[in-house]
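ok so heres the complex, two chains, lmk if somethin looks off
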Amino acid sequence: MFFSQQQTAYQHLSHLDWLEAEAIHILREVAGQCSNPALLFSGGKDSICLLRLAEKAFRPGRFPFPLLHIDTGHNYPEVIEFRDRKAAEIGERLIVRSVEDSMQRGTVVLKHTDEPRNKHQSVTLLEAIEEHGFDACIGGARRDEEKARAKERIMSFRDEFGQWDPKNQRPELWNLYNARSHKGENIRAFPISNWTELDVWQYIEREGLELPSIYFAHTRPIVYRQGAIVPVTDITPAKAGEEIVDLQVRFRTVGDITCTAPVISDADSLEKIIAETATTTITERGATRLDDQASEAAMEQRKKEGYF
Amino acid sequence: MTHPIEDHGLLRLLTCGSVDDGKSTLIGRLLFDSKSILADTLHAITKTSQRRGMQDVDLSLLTDGLQAEREQGITIDVAYRYFTTGTRKFIIADAPGHEQYTRNMVTAASTANLAIILVDARKGVLTQTRRHSYLAHLVGIPHLLVAVNKMDLVDFSQNRFEEINRDYLAFAEQLGIREVQFIPLSALNGDMVVERGDKLNWYQGQTLMEILETTPSAQRRHAAPFRFPVQYVCRPQDASNPRLHDYRGFMGRVESGSIAVGERVTVLPSGLSSTVKAIELGGEALADAATEQSVTLLLADEIDISRGDMIVKTGELPTQTKQLDATVCWLAESPLDQARTYLIRHTTRDTKAKLADIAYRVDVNSLEKQTVNQLAMNDIAKVTFKLAQPLLVDAYAQNRGTGAFIVIDASTNNTVGAGMIS
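and the predicted structre for the whole thing:
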């Protein structure tokens, strides 16, 4: 056997324990290096993991940062209810800033009224960063989500316009993270960079984490539109001529209603979701994000503009 | 099956080589054969391949992430890829092979436990092979694996494979590389990657995937003395809860070794000693903690400890020094300036630092030592730094966690250098 002469009694960490230990280390580095961070919490599954990791990192103390949600106003009510209840349950401060407020201020201008608001979150996020003087924002983005993210740093530097310059990122070596920034600049910290969608589901199961109900299979009215499954809601009504059907679906990712689609599934438990995730043939974003399909470079472009 | 029966943890590996060596094809093969490439991703690269007039799917497109790179057809930065075999999770750091990207390879190598060094069976050991091996060895990757690829183009010849092994070992010895493994394969056809195939029957060793699944991950650091740099101090100061009123938790990640409740520890730089009263994670008690675990330590005595301090076992002290002799890789476009003061970050401690001396620069191609008075991007050199505050260090060869540092330019806050303590 290869390398057998080096084997010792060392019991390595399981992959989830290793990922957890790394994420806790990153969260504590943000707390140790930055003076005023915030943790982005949307009620989605990735940020639910972040919340548990922050509990592991900082309890019995309080979190050294508030929770922040940039609300497009187009979120599923189950998720918003969950967000508020969860924040209250763990006793941490939740700040909500809304894209609709930015629209009223005139800093977000929609091209047309039913335009997806996802990309406009960047504006509201930058306004919240400025208002509160945050020097770091902790987010639940993962490198496996999308090609442009595969080269993202764990501590990602943004200039004062919130811009990500892929050619000007700090080299990141060992576990020596550089979260330094000048006033007005910002660090985006991604503690679960090295997690995959499957890791997230496995961690949720292991930790017994509660999720908004729409992550599990349920019956929902939908229409088929250009090959995608579009949920029928007040915000996204059926168009003339479209046939509404009731379908058993679940969400793999939850975000702005206008650009997040469910997948057909009868997985009504974590065990079934994990089994489906392990054997799926379509990427998370490919299946569910209507906004990334525009071009291969769509995410890179949005990140350059300040998106997470 | 939703739960793996065994969990072999996680292995971080690095692939070195250029597109010509079939590196991207090999990564594509690993992802593809472990079913980590999903249909829509495959569809996207198939379309791109067709648009560029290629007949076969170019698996290298999987690893070229950014638009700028896709346009130029080169990889300019380290990309991270993930796959799992059901029993183990893998993180591949994919660094470009070009000479001018030494810094990217050093970056990618810094977190890797195994390096796959690709050699084209037709071309044998090249300058590039030497450069990659030198850097992998320099950065202390514990396991080096030379993959002799494109065996299909040399008729799967055992003689050719053994010839390359001999050539490689001759120069590996000069570098002081003591342990290296060899494997013949064809990434294009998949021989010896996941499946053995039927063309390399003279090879009795494990397939690439078997090697990846069984290589130990962190045992070297585990055998080293206990090192616990303090990241953050938890003081809830909760007057209503008597347990939390005097609670002082020292939070960090075990860089090396292990610790158990009841053991004697010394806090540095103060030198004060105490006993470990409790080890916790998220408020739950643990009996002990080992390498790579993030935990909270509580001590029996009230000692003033803050971020940047280090907790070690009494009697196993690191070196306290205001001078660093180190091998440095310069990462920034602006050269290392002898007149300037930089910031050095080592574990959780920062100190101001000035360059005192450049002993020599190493030419990464010829491995020749050269006299220079300035360091430019991608240079590797033996240097000495003077420090404003003492650091608590071990030799990098003994301990990656307490032997590594980064150099920060305080005016831009950029990370401009990477250092390994001698």
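quick notes: Residues 1-5 of chain B have pLDDT under 50 and may be disordered. thats all i got rn
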